[in-house]
Specification:
It contains 13 helices and seven strands. By secondary structure, the protein is of the alpha/beta class. It folds into two domains: 183 residues, Vaccinia Virus protein VP39 (Rossmann fold, 3-Layer(aba) Sandwich), CATH 3.40.50.150; 107 residues, Putative methyltransferase TM0872, insert domain (DNA polymerase, domain 1, Orthogonal Bundle), CATH 1.10.150.170. A seven-stranded mixed sheet has the order 3-2-1-4-5-7-6, with helices on both faces.
Amino acid sequence: MNNTPAEHIPVLTEFAAGISLKDDAIVVDATIGSGGHSKIFAKSLGKDAVLLGFDVDNNCLAIARQNLAALPCKVLLVRENFANIAQVLRQNGIEKVDLIFADLGVCSTQLADENKGLSFEKDMKIDMRLDDRLTISAADIVNRMDEKGLADLIYNFAQERASRKIARSIIQARQKKKIDTTAELVNIICHALRCNPKSRKSRIHPATKTFQALRIAVNSELENLEKFLAAVPNLLKKDGKIAVISFHSLEDRIVKMNFRQNKAAGIYEIATKKPITASAAQRLENPRSRSAKLRIAVRL
């Protein structure tokens, strides 16, 4: 299969197909994207079921609305960050749900969207706001933050060991001209790392970690994840499930620690002793799935 941006493939679909739901279940997809996982979940849902989908990206919501239009259940799509899940459920008269799911990855359509400015593979204006209502972009950070702040951000949000070299290189470059595009930023990072992005040895692009750190900072991703996870226990029915797919160690650690703390408090049973990862076949079909880790907990 040719995985073009328009053909975003959701990761770990085997898990979604294996989730057992009653035909009148209430399901929350906290990161609906194009609706790929929800479409699989909803195969067992009937007309009395409810699927509530969150996303901060209007384009994703429009695609999901189209992809989920034929479902027999009631579909509610809201433009909201999943950190506000409790508030949105209250507004829709929903007290408890059967399944809450979140895929924390950025989808292919967003990476390809020139207005998002996320990609280090294509040249576009630096932005990285998944929610265009946010006021601070990655370009603002790159061009305004001091050297120590930049180095700390790149290290703390991506564990980039060369964070100080990269920050220094950014400061030196912006003294000559404003850094406007992703290609400019990639060249600055590669100059700091003394590497050529077109003839690299590693399968991981040298700009990956810096771009990840900037995106996390712009979108307050870790803070919002913690707020979301804190709200979930009060929203799940008994035996309800929380399932989260993460794509880097910072996210996965937050999910793992939250599940462990709730288990110790007698709130959760952890269904995945070790995170579920993609099969060899899925990694071949969808390379982005190679870093995906799924954890599931059950409400006691």
